[in-house]
Model the fold of this input.
Amino acid sequence: MSKFVKKSIIMDESGMRRAIVRIAHEIIEKNKGVEEVALMGIRTRGVPLAARIANEIKSIEGIDVPVGMLDITLYRDDLSTLGYNPIVHGTDIDFDLSGKIIVLVDDVLYTGRTIRAALDAVIDMGRPSTIQLAVLVDRGHRELPIRADYVGKNVPTAKKEAIEVTLVEEDKIDEVSIGDIEEV
Done:
């Protein structure tokens, strides 16, 4: 078993808020508005981040952007190593993806494998005009040719390091930390 040992906080609550506001502005600017934009949060922490970005977009543009929840469990390329009974939380999308600009939202971009799984899931549900990616933290070390369109903070890391994102909605505190993984 392993545990995260925090070394330092790299984003506090106000830093996270600034990053989310900036991402919301960039989404609006890049897409020349948000009329065709929908956000899809990747479970678990991408979901509240997508909701926060949607709230910021509404405060800027006065438009409610559709937000969906995407569970990629069954699309993972390491599913066979997770055990016989993976926990599937379900996908909740109550809008048509066809012709939409879909912005996938996740907390940390690392190898790119989570995003590859998310792309497969989205394509199985419809044919959006474009799929974009927004992440709170990009830590590098890609194994697949995937790049985020919107990044809250780039944090170069060593492979042995880890990034931990905690959100009020899930963990009672907004914080991004860098640390080490230790075996216990």
